[in-house]
Amino acid sequence: MRGLTRAGKRASEMAFNAGGGTINWFPGHMAAASRAIRDRLKLADLVIEVRDARIPLSSANEDLQPVLAAKRRILALNKKDLANPNIMNMWVDHFQSCKQDCISLNAHSSNSINQLLGLVELKLREAILKEPTLLVMVVGVPNVGKSALINSIHRIANSRFPVNDKIKRATVGPLPGVTQDIAGYKIASQPSIYVLDTPGVLVPSIPDMETGLKLALTGAVKDSVVGEERIAKYLLSLLNIRKTPLHWGRLLRRREEFDGEPDDSCEKGSSGSLRRRRRFNNSDALYVQDLVIEVQRTLCSTAMEFTGNLDEDNELESLIDSQLVALRKVFRISHKPLDESHGPASKKLLTLFRSGKLGPFILDDLPDHTTH
Questions:
Q1: CA separation for the pair 125, 68 (Å, rounded)
Q2: Between 362 and 17, whose confidence is greater?
Q3: Where are the domains of the chain?
Q4: Which of 75-79, 200-204, 327-331 has the highest mean pLDDT?
Q5: What is the pLDDT of residue 241?
Q6: Are the C-beta atoms of 226 and 20 separated by less than 8 Å?
Q7: Nearest in space to 117 (alpha carbons), one of 81, 77, 164, 149
Q8: Beta-ladder partners of 75
Q9: Which percentage of the chain shows pLDDT scores above 70?
Q10: Homologous superfamily in CATH for domain 26-197
Q11: Per-residue pLDDT for 336 more than 80?
Q12: Cβ 88 vs Cβ 112: under 8 Å
């Protein structure tokens, strides 16, 4: 993922973003929500801050970092199945080198959740003698998997303590004898450790266009705020600047050669980018697999056939437009005369990316002092 910060910055500054305006998040009521989060954080003995593994820095709320850093905290980099595993390990090492407990996980994996809960209990050992009841709070920006994580914790909590109801009231806070209405799932006893069942939603920090587009691409900012076509063009900018389609082409050729069917559809000058050697399989899983191959082959062939200079932004935008036109055919989107919009193709491309079908990615770059 080297150079992605530079690629991301260039992609965010291209002309297709110029008319879109700045990327804002939710309206003013989130300011009140932020204040409420600060109040709830005071109750927590430990905070699990969930971030998207594809954007370990961009999915943080910068305003609350001093508050979070002052508490016992575990960074949970969720959706690790969508992130490049080699680079993911380097990110975990980076955070741990900064004296920050960090774990990469998949919120739908029991093994991941058990590892997280083991770390939670380890971190809370030092508080065992001080409090009869310890509370754990899950926080994070939208769409990083907070609810999925809490639901998985609930299932494990039920298996550990099947006869216990959810906690309703507990002695919490700095003043002895003060009780507050809370709801949470018990994950340990002696002392009792509960995970609050309602996550804290943090407002994404969007200091610049690049961060906003990364958040939009991973789904933390609603598509309607930014526009699907704008997000898809940002994705294609990143892919082309990093020459990912050409990498896909090499992988496809190796696969075809291994299967005994040499693939020349990504060779320069080839007109076979949309050629299918077989009909899409009726099985949904195989249909999606075939569709992904066609998307990768199409993006590769259009990049190979392009004769412009990709170092020039206007020429890169020309390539992106031609790729979106070509993807209409792959996605079987009927093209109406005079209709220049790429909305339907953009939507389908983003769905493939966000589900990990196009491969694992990490959009943030490691800080310079950790790179080699």
A1: 19
A2: 362
A3: 1-22+206-259+283-371, 26-197
A4: 75-79
A5: 93
A6: yes
A7: 149
A8: 49, 102
A9: 77
A10: P-loop containing nucleotide triphosphate hydrolases (3.40.50.300)
A11: no
A12: no
Contacts of 60 (CB under 8 A, 6+ apart): 49, 51, 141, 205
Q: What does the alpha-carbon distance between residue 6 and residue 364 come to, in Å, rounded to a whole number?
A: 10
Pairing between strand 167-171 and 133-140?
A: unpaired
Q: Decide which of 196 and 352 is more confident.
A: 352
Cα–Cα distance list, 340 to 11, 294, 348 (Å)? 22, 22, 17
Location of structure tokens 């939507």: 347
Please, what is the Cα angle at 46 between 43 and 49, to 5 degrees?
110
- Write out pLDDT tens, residues 226-240: 999 999 999 999 999
Give 16-76 as a 3 state SS string.
Answer: HHHHHCCCCCCCCHHHHHHHHHHHHHCCCCEEEEEEECCCCCCCCCCCCHHHHHCCCEEEE
- Residue 179, pLDDT score: 43
**pTM to 2 decimal places:** 0.84
Length of the chain: 372
Q: Which two tokens stand for residue 176?
A: 């002895």
Per residue, what are the HEC states of the chain?
CCCHHHHHHHHHCCHHHHHHCCCCCCCCHHHHHHHHHHHHHCCCCEEEEEEECCCCCCCCCCCCHHHHHCCCEEEEEECHHHCCHHHHHHHHHHHHHCCCCEEECCCCCHHHHHHHHHHHHHHHHHHCCCCCEEEEEEEECCCCCHHHHHHHHHHHHHHHCCCCCCEEEEECCCCCCCEEEEEEEEEECCCEEEEECCCEECCCCCCCHHHHHHHHHHCCCCHHHHCHHHHHHHHHHHHHHCCHHHHHHHHHHHHHHHCCCCCCCCCCCCCCCCCCCCCCCCCHHHHHHHHHHHHHHHHHHHHHHCCCCCCCHHHHHHHHHHHHHHHHHHCCCCCCCCCCCCHHHHHHHHHHHHCCCCCCCCCCCCCHHHCC
pLDDT tens digits for range 135-165 = 999 999 889 999 999 999 988 988 888 765 5
